[in-house]
Design a protein that fits this description.
2 copies of one chain form a homodimer.
Chain A lengths: L5 E7 L2 H11 L4 H4 L1 H4 L11 H14 L7 E9 L8 E14 L2 E11 L5 E12 L3
Antiparallel strand pairs in A: 1-3, 2-5, 3-4, 4-5
C-alpha cells in the first residue's frame, strides 16, 4: 500500500436495494420508501438511504483498499446531493496517509462518490487499522 | 424538537444480519464472515460491519428523532470497540443544536451506542435537514 493508491467500485441502487436496506437496518423513513410522501419533499422523489450509498465506500474498504482484515476505526460522510432509485454510483478511494504504529498501520483514505452524471453525491474520510497482530 | 431531546433503539445483531448486510452492501471482508480468518485477528472472532452498527443510529434518525422526512447531510462515526455476533446494542441519541435557516431547520444530534455490558462501542454526530419545503 502507498500514498496515492486508488481503488473504485460502481453500483446501481435498485428499488429492491433500498427496500432491503430499510428492512435490514430498520430505517423506514418514508423519504426512502413512500413515493407519495417523497413528492412533497425538496427532492420530489424517493432517495436512497445515505448510509446505503456510504456502504459502497465500505465495500471498497473491505474488499479492495485496504481489503481483507482491515478494521474501520473512523468514518465521516458528507452527503452532497441525493441518490435516487436507479442511480449508478461510483465510489473512488485514495490513500492519503499511512502511519506505522506498534499495533499496525493506521491508514487514512479519502473517498468520493459520483453519480452517472459525474456529480459528487458523497465524500468521506476513513481511518483504518491494518493490524500487526495475527 | 428541543435541545437535549433524546431517543433510543436497541437491537441484537444476529449472524443473519451480518450475512445479509454483507450481501446487500458487497462488503465481504472476512473479518465479518469467516470465523477461521477472524480467529487470527486482534479480536479473535468475527465482528459486525461498523456501518451495520452505525445503521442503528440511522434507524433512530429516520424513525424517531427527528423521524419522517429528515434528510441526513453529514455523519461521523468513531468505532471504539468491536461488536460481535449476538451482541445487543443500544443507540442513544441527543439533540445538541437547532439552527433555523431559510431552507429549514439544521439539526445536530450526538449519538452513543452501548453494548450489553454498557461499554461504548460507537459514538457519532449527525447533521440533518428538516426541510421547510413541502
Amino acid at each position: 500500500m502507498y500514498i496515492g493508491q486508488t481503488a473504485f467500485l460502481e453500483r446501481t441502487f435498485e428499488e429492491s436495494d433500498i427496500i432491503n436496506f430499510a428492512n435490514l437496518t430498520l430505517d423506514t423513513n418514508p423519504v426512502h420508501l413512500d413515493e407519495g410522501f417523497a413528492k412533497h419533499t425538496r427532492f420530489k422523489k424517493r432517495i436512497a438511504h445515505g448510509l446505503l450509498t456510504g456502504s459502497l465506500i465500505g465495500a471498497v474498504l473491505g474488499t479492495k483498499l485496504p481489503g481483507s482484515g482491515a478494521v474501520l476505526l473512523k468514518q465521516s460522510f458528507n452527503f452532497k446531493e441525493p441518490v435516487f432509485v436507479g442511480d449508478r454510483v461510483k465510489a473512488v478511494l485514495e490513500v492519503t496517509e499511512i502511519n506505522e504504529k506498534s499495533i499496525g498501520k493506521i491508514v487514512k483514505i479519502k473517498s468520493r462518490c459520483f453519480n452517472q452524471f459525474e456529480i459528487i453525491v458523497l465524500d468521506g474520510e476513513s481511518t483504518l487499522l491494518i493490524s500487526a497482530i495475527k
